[in-house]
Amino acid sequence: MFELALEKDEDKLSSQISVAGEIDLFAAPDFKKRLYEAIGEGDSDVVLNCTDLTYIDSTGLGILLGALKRVRQNNHNVYIKNLKDSIRKLFRITGLDKAFILEEAQ
Amino acid sequence: MSTNSRIVLSIPPKAEYVSLVRLTASGVANQCGFDLDCIEDLKVCVSEVLNKAIAAFSEEETAALSITFEPAVDSLAVLIGGNGLNGETLFASETDAFALAILDTLMDEVVLSGDETAAVRLVKTTGKTGTDD
Fold first, then answer.
1. Which among B22, B51, B101 is the nearest to A93, CB-wise?
2. Are A93 and B95 in contact (CB < 8 Å)?
3. Cα–Cα distance between B67 and B50 in angstroms, integer?
4. Domains present along chain B, CATH in parentheses
5. Residue B60: predicted pLDDT
6. Topology of domain A2-103, per CATH?
């Protein structure tokens, strides 16, 4: 089970998206649909707040990578905030810490 | 937990049951004395193997996946098998690179076998949290 909430900046320079819960094989199709809806054509930066994200597997990481590609096509970026250590470790292992901009936990 | 205790789960090869196995893995690892980092490592790796195993079974209704937990004095082994499941070909796709990297880094031992009763064998040693820390 996961939750995803979108909040556009007033100046529309970035899409603020909060992701919570667990993103695994079961949740992946719905997560992909809702994330892609949230980023639209990828015409702004995306800020993913992962404070309450407790679990993600390689399926979920692949979906995030797909979202990054869409945003990068428009010369924007994906910023990921407040990752738990156990999830940050997965980004390091897969090399995705070099692809995304990971911001330190607040 | 006694080191001669074996815990065996049998699940339909469907995505909705992966969280159930994660929960069981967490409980078994906790009783074995693993720290939180090791428990998280084990949950992630068991899920990665199950993701691939479920994809291998597609929509076959009658199939079952078995997940066996074998505690030892200083380690926990998890065996994943199922009818016709072949560990040697399970991670053959280029898109499996993330999953394989995760397994190789977080587990102390990963054995991919043609033996369908233990197509994948994962071993995590107590107190080791992965070399990437």
1. B101
2. no
3. 9
4. 7-125 (3.30.565.10)
5. 58
6. Transcription Regulator spoIIAA (3.30.750)
